[in-house]
Specification:
Radius of gyration: 12 Å
Distance between the termini: 14 Å
Number of domains: 1
Order of helices and strands: HH
Number of helices: 2
Largest sheet: none
Shape: elongated
Number of strands: 0
Length: about 40
């Protein structure tokens, strides 16, 4: 797989109108780190 799209708006911590921006950024960073490519 070379690309993936993860729609974080389905996460209520991120996609709800009252979501805290800092919480949203932390969650997004966690996903990016978890999906980041490792050494080859």
């Amino acid at each position: 797989m070379t690309e993936a799209f993860v729609d974080l708006n389905f996460d209520p911590r991120i996609g709800s109108p009252g979501a805290d921006p800092q919480t949203s950024l932390r969650a997004a960073r966690e996903v990016l780190e978890a999906l980041a490519p490792g050494p080859r």
